[in-house]
Amino acid sequence: MSALESFIWHTLGYAAMPVIFFGGFIGVFFVACAILKMTGNTPVED
Predict the structure, then answer these.
(1) b or e along 17-26 (b: 16 or more beta carbons within 10 Å of the residue's beta carbon)?
(2) Which tens digit of pLDDT belongs to each residue from 28-37?
(3) Domain-by-domain residue ranges, the chain?
(4) pTM for this prediction
């Protein structure tokens, strides 16, 4: 593998880490919202 190919693969690898990390948070957020909506839960009234 040439130096350029190695640089590209390392860049792609390190760029994928935050995408996977934040994508997981966003995915959990939407799944939790869907579950709350399906079960009919609403915000607590003061």
Answers:
(1) eeeeeeeeee
(2) 999 999 999 9
(3) 1-39
(4) 0.61
